[in-house]
Design a protein that fits this description.
The protein is α/β, with parallel strands linked by helices and 342 residues long. The protein has helices at 3-21, 24-62, 80-91, 114-128, 155-158, 172-176, 178-182, 320-328, and strands spanning 131-134, 138-141, 143-146, 190-194, 224-228, 238-242, 249-256, 266-275, 281-290, 305-306, 329-331. It contains 8 helices and 11 strands. The chain is globular and about 95 Å long.
Length: 342
């Protein structure tokens, strides 16, 4: 056997011999010292890890936040008729009893992160302004006029902090199939829109599911499109044209602005119900939506809002406008909330 191996074996045997020659007390002290050394090493590693985490947090909090997008106005309609409806909505003067905007003290949050300020600002607007305000109710209303139909929002608009005028009041179903939501049993008997009314430009592939009257274009003297006859089946909804608006009551909507609101990812909107003959304001729902403030964080499609939809614990739902309007314009044969199984 090589000499090196003999030397190693002799050394190992010598070490074992010294260990066996120690007293049990001495052995215990050595083992205890080893355990203590291991524990101290683990503790040191843990403290270093915690220190690194704290440094990371401090570094993150101290880092400059992303620069907000350049403030700009929301998109305004370019179609002359839509622009006229837009201007009318923004010309309406609301009753004095509606809460006035309460200034928010931004100076209290000068050293806070933007998310903290946005949270406080959204809560402030919800507590001081948002709500359903009914000034007068009307019973046995057969139908109503939608003065400003909504356009379907694109993904680009949802993710743009400024383009949408009223992210709060927008619901996709009300931009596509709104007549189905208003005309049905226990709701209204007809629903009126400016010409040409919905469905005219629907793709040919979908037309087989609907009544042919929905796709007819108006004549030159037609002013409004009236939807009626919906009994729960898709094909039952029909459309006709009128040379004058037949509804006594209607509703419109508009975006509202507050100091630095979009900068903090907040957008407000109002839904206004009025008497079309007297221009009397019958009710107003004022609300706010809150989303991210830059880049991929912004998404108006799914966002906290106030007031929230009071049914099914959702922020908004398919009949978000009807939910408020039926409080002001009572249908002929209404069903009280929360019974929505009709």
């Amino acid at each position: 056997m090589p000499k090196g191996n003999v030397s190693a074996q002799h050394k190992q045997t010598s070490t074992r011999g010294r260990w066996q020659g120690w007293s049990w007390r001495k052995r215990g002290l050595v083992m205890l010292g080893g355990v203590v050394l291991v524990v101290l090493s683990i503790a040191a590693m843990f403290m270093l890890a915690r220190r690194g985490e704290q440094l990371f947090i401090l570094s993150s909090e101290g880092a400059p936040e992303p620069i907000p997008e350049q403030a700009r106005e929301w998109d305004k309609p370019t179609d002359p008729r839509e622009l006229e409806a837009y201007n009318f909505a923004h010309s309406l003067e609301l009753p004095d009893s509606l809460p006035e905007p309460v200034p928010f003290d931004f100076s209290r949050y000068t050293s806070s992160r933007r998310h903290t300020t946005a949270t406080a600002y959204f809560k402030h607007l919800c507590e001081t302004e948002a709500g359903d305000y009914v000034f007068k109710t009307v019973d046995k209303v057969e139908g109503l006029y939608q003065m400003r139909p909504r356009s379907v929002a694109t993904q680009e608009e949802f993710r743009d902090l400024y383009r949408m005028e009223d992210p709060y009041g927008y619901v996709e179903g009300e931009a596509e199939d709104v007549a189905f939501m208003f005309v049905r049993k226990h709701r209204y008997r007809y629903f009126e829109q400016p010409v040409p009314g919905a469905f005219v430009h629907m793709k040919q592939i979908h037309r087989k599911y609907y009544d042919t009257s929905l796709f007819v274009f108006p004549d030159l003297n037609d002013v409004s499109a009236v939807f009626w006859g919906h009994n729960g089946e898709t094909r039952s909804l029909k459309k006709r044209y009128e040379s004058q608006i037949i509804s006594r009551y209607g509703y419109t909507w508009r975006g509202i602005q507050r100091d630095r609101d979009r900068e903090f990812g907040i957008a407000g909107g109002e839904l206004i119900v009025l008497d079309l003959q007297t221009d009397e304001i019958l009710g107003v729902r004022r609300g706010f939506a809150w989303t991210g403030t830059s880049g991929r964080k912004t998404n108006w499609e799914f966002t906290p809002v106030c007031p929230r939809y009071e049914i099914r614990d959702r922020s908004k739902d398919f009949d978000f406008s009807y939910w408020f309007i039926r409080k002001v314009l009572r249908p002929v044969d209404p069903v009280e909330w929360p019974d929505v199984t009709f």
